[in-house]
Specification:
Glutathione S-transferase Yfyf (Class Pi), Chain A, domain 2; alpha/beta; Rossmann fold; 12 helices; 366 residues; 6-stranded antiparallel sheet
Amino acid sequence: MEFYKLEKLQVDNFRNLNSNVIDFSPTINCIFGENGNGKTNILEAIFFLCNKKSFRKNTSFPQILSVECEKSEILFNSVWLTDNEQKFSLSGKVSSESSVWNLNSRPIKSKPKIASVFINPFDSYGFHTTASFRRNWVDQHLSLISKEYKDVLSRYNQSLKFRNQLLSKKPSSYLQQVEAIDDQLAYYSKIVTDLRMEFVDQLRPYCKMTFKIIFEQVHDLQLQLQSEFIGATQEEIRDYYRRNLQKDDINGRTTYGIHLDDYMFLFDGFNSFEFCSLGQQKMSYLSLIFAYIELFRYKFSSYPIVLIDDVSGELDSRRWKNLIEYLEAKNFQVIITTANENFKQELEKIKNSNKIYVDSGSIGNL
């Protein structure tokens, strides 16, 4: 994973965006325009360039392809700046079957993954109401800062898939094979659980700090892991799997394990979904995201690119100013959209900020 700042971007055939070259500042970039004109599409194009996937759920290649394209391919041309002020170009051609990337006009086997975080205040609802959303959120963000977690979780999922196939199809001697897999699952489960516990513990002080800075309130925010395996040894986890093997055999699948763990977001010790207003839930979620960004900075001495899709509806004018002051004080590259006229006026006051205007996919720097 690399830490760069985006200087220029040009895309062809990406949703409704035209092929204008967009210039970016290494600090704060504000994207203005009416709703439905393509502001979020710029964020999506940047995120796709960084991660080779969209931040939108269940999005396939045909959905991001322009309806007016002559060829079924998306072209990316970009210029990046390293921490040492060195520039390089990254270009790519992406289709539904493959992707080809060039670094400084030379072919490369794989595109470097560039650290980026997308902030959408509407995700607060999914985070507070859906266990799978919370699991995916933690898996995605923890994998970004821990290669060990990403690798071990991948091996766990592979073993889990094989275990479920055995339980479903029941070939000869399948129970002996399942017991052998349980040893692997116990080993992976122990590592994953410990890393998840470490992650939620590290987030806690940053959650409290960012909530105080942006929302001017002091509250204890905590993401709490809910798992059967907290504090358990590898042997205890293995025994747990084996005690429940009969139940799994009847159901034809693994009915428990770290893939079903959940998280509770606590607000002063109470479940935020049950005891907080929708406004407090959204504020808590935004604080969690910024807490993660601060934790990222602590671990890598560098910030990811931060993409913020219109948060003006979640903040009053005073808190807009707090957020802007927070962004100004940090040394990360942030790209933020808004259609709110009052929030736009506050963003326009930021010294040395870069201003981009979008109108029906046509893009220009102000």
